[in-house]
Amino acid sequence: MPKMKSSSSAKKRFKKTASGEFKRGQAYTSHILTKKTQKRKRNLRKKVLIDKADKKSIQRMLPNA
Asked: Are 45 and 27 spatial neighbours (Cβ–Cβ below 8 Å)?
């Protein structure tokens, strides 16, 4: 049987936590930042956990994570 390959795009976007969840960066941080408040931009810097509905597909993309 061939090796299980991880998705390169998923490797760059998701990290697995110690409890087995996946964390991701947030969207809306790359441009048109002038109209966003400092508080909003600061909160967008934080990592968040992925949604329960996406967990199965991300686990499939990262079999060795």
From this structure: no
